[in-house]
Design a protein that fits this description.
With about 120 residues, the protein is α+β, with helices and mostly antiparallel strands. It has helices at about 10-20, 25-30, 40-50, 70-75, 120-124, and strands spanning about 5, 60-65, 90, 100-105, 110-115. The chain has one domain (about 5-124): YaeB-like fold, CATH 3.30.2310.20.
Length: about 120
């Protein structure tokens, strides 16, 4: 079953900015080293999110601690009012030590893209 990709307004703004940056060109135009289809890291990750496929360890997907306000914002976007535990994840487009990050929340059938940027963009 396919997922639906939701984007926050903050994410949309950040995406427009990073797409213009030459530092992000390898993420949108480069190739994942292990993919025979020669997709860019951006295309590879979004395909995984849309199809519900597991994201390879190369992208170093890990939980992220976040403020309660963000949890409330995510819960408001969910189609159900059931009590759910929110786990926000971060991944590195350019491998474990990379500095190009995507922050997202993944539920059963909806993935919400929350932020995109470098460590200094997102956490300073």
């Amino acid at each position: 079953m396919s997922h639906i990709l939701n984007e926050t307004s903050q994410f949309k703004h950040q995406l427009r900015r990073v797409r213009k940056s030459p530092r992000w060109r390898p993420i949108f135009e480069g190739h994942v080293p292990f993919d025979s289809d020669e997709r860019s890291p951006w295309d590879y990750v979004t395909d995984c999110l849309l199809t519900g496929s597991e994201i390879p360890d190369y992208f170093y997907v890990h939980p992220l601690h976040f403020p309660k306000a963000l949890e409330k914002q995510i819960k408001r976007r969910l189609p159900t009012s059931e009590h759910v535990t929110i786990q926000v994840l971060e991944l590195h487009f350019d491998g474990h030590n990379g500095n190009h990050l995507l922050v997202f929340y993944d539920s059963t059938d909806v993935t919400t893209l929350l932020a995109i940027g470098t460590h200094s963009d997102l956490f300073s």
